[in-house]
Amino acid sequence: MLALLALGVFASAYNVNPYISILVAFLGNFLGSSALFYFTRTSKKDFQKHLVKHRRKLALLVVLFRKNGFIFTFVCKFIYGLKTLGPIAAEISKLSFVKFSVYNLISCIIWAIAVFYVAYFLGESLGQFFDEYSSYMPIVLLILLVIIFIYFKIKAKK
Length: 158
Hints:
Shape: flat
Number of helices: 8
């Protein structure tokens, strides 16, 4: 997701082909989620020992998948922690691979287009903002560094 956001920002400033960026992000996300679903199905015992800490989360996710599979597959694309647990919960809820693949395909297309173009338009806005207020940026960066330094000093004392 971070790479897609960066490409969206770069596309607003430089000549980057948005279609290739969206296609690569879509394929990576789709194949990754599908592979995670498939590997969970084929080797459940291996996955179960790693998911002991996440039993409650997975139980809630399974209930949500059974109620509304497509909506939850779509929401999982945008929430970082659920990107991994979503396909696992879909498999545990006995969703068929074909049905999950269709849900995943549609969700990945919408996700890639939405994230790229949000970053693209924010990149244009940020570019205009930095052009207008570039003389103040050293002061803002200095203040930001002082705040971070003070935060870590306070955190180190605890």
